[in-house]
Amino acid sequence: MRLAMMMAMQAISGPPIPPELRPVKPTPVATPCGEPDAGGDIVVCARARGADRLGPIDTDRHAARPLRAETGLIGSIRMSAAAEQGTLPNGQSAPRAMLHLKMPF
Questions:
Q1: Confidence class of residue 75 from pLDDT cuts 50, 70 and 90?
Q2: Which residues make Cβ contacts (< 8 Å) with residue 53, sequence separation at least 6?
Q3: pLDDT of residue 49 exceeding 70
Q4: Angle subtended at Cα 98 by Cα 71 and Cα 61, rounded to the nearest 5 degrees
Q5: Domain residue spans in the chain?
């Protein structure tokens, strides 16, 4: 009895889906790809040849310039980050990460 009841409960799927929530069926293409149309022309469906290619780069807009890691904090206070290379008294190099705070006065 319990098995029959569980199978009956699985068969119930709930109320029907309203029309606005049903999946939309794709509109059929006038002429399917690879078949001749009314004029006898074969329709070829393909992507454009240069669809995956990038266009030429605008050299004025993307000119090489130094990158500055800088942001505004409060009001006119600016903070920037920079990497510097220094030398120690024994001749070893010492890389540094520097944070600069700039305030107009």
A1: confident
A2: none
A3: yes
A4: 45
A5: 71-105
Tokens matching residue 9: 């409960």
Q: Residue 34 burial (CB < 10 Å; 0-12/13-18/19+)?
A: exposed
HEC per residue, 67-80: CCEEEECCCCCEEE
Predicted local distance difference test score (pLDDT) of residue 37? 73
Q: Which two tokens stand for residue 3?
A: 């098995």
Strand pairing partners for 82? Answer: 98
pTM as predicted: 0.35
- Judging by beta carbons within 10 Å of its beta carbon (0-12, 13-18, 19+), is residue 78 exposed, middle or buried? middle
The residue written with tokens 């409060």 in the block is: 74
68 and 40 Cβ atoms separated by less than 8 Å: no
Check whether 70 has a pLDDT greater than 80. yes
Secondary structure class of 71 (helix, strand, coil)? strand
Predicted local confidence at residue 14, as pLDDT = 64
